[in-house]
Design a protein that fits this description.
alpha+beta; six-stranded mixed β-sheet; Aminopeptidase; disordered N terminus; Alpha-Beta Plaits; five-stranded antiparallel β-sheet
Length: 483
């Protein structure tokens, strides 16, 4: 059942008689960072080599949950347990709950304890992936940004709230997985089986980047992903280009032109069925004036690339893109004067809510055939779902108003992230409104050597999350509930 669409104005979290206590809580959150307590906790967590991409480190996934997350939650009054993954070989999951009163709203929170490979030898800053090291405003270490630092901020904010209020003032459930970096195997099946146990009124979680380091950000879902391959095999081997050039079809040339009938030289999708519906008015309104690529080190945005008539923000958040990830023909490392026998391209589509993605393969085949490329083979696509909460949902209005009250500036609202997260599990399987508050930034080098969390962003995130939880407790009686 959808949450009632009631108006929730910013005045609902305006200063009250409890404003001094709220301000004291935000000051305590800043002190928690300034005194080094947060950094010490994060250093302990980064030291656990919980890479889900390295089978030899599988025991570390379990250790992260049992030695770090479970005891932290227990100290906050949560009952917790570790679950085997329903998918063979998948990492363990942890669920926890603290139910203070069934009449209060229940928040489901999420984090992932796994990280990508350490890539130890490639680090040039800090002290390698498994030792948290501060250099200036950067906290270097694997997982510092994705996702240990982010869920550590949210855990600390809950602890600070409970310390000041003794009770949270709302119910909380937690779900931790340890396979997000390998595609979240088993997460969907687990949530489907535990749907009642994980029932809540809203998901509030943190992952991904802010729009920019200076701007607190809220996003409400993510674009979906569809990966597929195009392949053309014409003969068994290569043939000398001097003897056979002009007589034999070149599969690389044919494939390049086949791709051009799917997406043109400006990045515009040419397959009608793969184009989304018009950008909704409230999505367009939320994206108005947003600038991407404004942080130091960001690449320059190509203003003429992509769908005409859209702003850059609308192209990356509110529209679909079709990309060529890689192409292969012949031997690129050592080319020879021969017409190659085959060519292959790996295609990658990001798509938004409203796209008829189930028909992707048929649509691509039909477009290729209509342009004379019927012999190009299209693989079965691998698809993750797109999600987007209505930007006018009352949980969104509440969150934006709370963050503005804590930081003194209006946060950025992204109707969905340009990248992807397993948000469909929460939005579709658990049927929850989903509100994400990221604590990192695009230049954090997640998945790469020298991953880092920005100290000023982490400090501010501790304050805005404690402020959000305070406001949630204060306004618990007015927030929408699930039926």
């Amino acid at each position: 059942m959808q949450a009632p669409q009631v108006t929730f104005p910013a005045s609902a979290v305006s200063p009250s008689a409890n404003a001094p206590a709220r301000a004291a809580l935000l000051a305590a959150a800043a002190a928690h960072f300034d005194d080094g307590d947060f950094v010490r906790t994060l250093a302990r967590r980064v030291a656990i080599r919980s890479s889900s991409q390295d089978a030899a480190l599988a025991p570390e996934l379990h250790r992260y949950l049992v030695d770090e997350i479970g005891p932290t939650l227990a100290a906050l009054g949560f009952a917790w347990r570790v679950h085997d993954n329903p998918v063979p070989g998948g990492g363990p999951l942890l669920s926890a709950e603290r139910i203070e009163d069934a009449a209060l709203p229940t928040v489901l929170m999420y984090g992932h304890g796994d990280v990508v490979r350490g890539q130890d030898e490639a680090w040039t800053r800090g002290q390698g992936p498994w030792t948290l090291a501060r250099e200036g405003e950067r906290l270097y270490g694997r997982g510092s940004a994705d996702n240990k630092g982010q869920h550590s901020i949210n855990l600390a904010a809950l602890a600070l709230l409970r310390q000041q209020r003794e009770r949270l003032g709302f119910n909380v459930k937690w779900l931790f997985e340890t396979g997000e970096e390998t595609g979240s195997p088993g997460l969907s099946a687990f949530c489907a089986a535990q749907r009642q146990a994980l029932a809540a009124d809203v998901l509030i979680a943190s992952d991904g980047p802010r729009l920019s380091r200076e701007r607190p950000t809220v996003f409400l879902g993510s674009r979906g992903v569809a990966n597929f391959a195009l392949e053309l095999k014409l003969r068994a081997g290569g043939h000398h280009s001097g003897n056979w050039g002009g007589l034999l079809r070149n599969p690389a040339t044919v494939l390049a032109n086949a791709i051009a009938c799917l997406v043109d030289g400006r990045g515009v999708i040419r397959v009608p069925a793969l184009r989304p519906p018009p950008v909704p008015t409230n999505v367009r309104r939320a994206l108005q004036g947003l600038v991407f690529g404004s942080d130091p080190g960001d690449p320059a945005v190509d203003p003429e690339w992509g769908e005409p008539g859209l702003t850059p923000a609308e192209r990356v958040i509110g529209w679909n893109t079709l990309e060529v990830l890689a192409m292969s023909a012949g031997n690129p490392a050592a080319p020879v004067n021969a017409i190659p026998p085959a060519a292959k391209a790996w295609m990658h589509m990001r798509w938004v809510v409203g796209t008829r993605i189930d028909g992707l393969r048929d649509a691509v085949r039909a477009q290729l055939a209509a342009h004379g490329f019927a012999d190009v083979q299209v693989s079965e696509p691998e698809i993750t779902q797109a999600t987007r909460l209505d930007p006018d949902d009352p949980w969104v209005r509440f969150t934006l108003a709370s963050i503005e009250r804590s930081t003194g500036r209006a946060p950025v609202l992204l109707p969905n992230l340009g990248g992807s997260l397993p948000n469909d599990v929460f939005a579709d399987i658990l049927d929850l409104p989903t509100v994400w508050i990221p604590h990192s930034y695009a230049g954090c080098q997640q998945h790469a050597p020298d991953e880092h969390l920005l100290a000023p962003v982490a400090r501010e995130a501790l304050q805005l999350m404690t402020g959000l939880f305070w406001d949630l407790a204060e306004q618990a009686g007015t927030l929408p509930r699930r039926g």
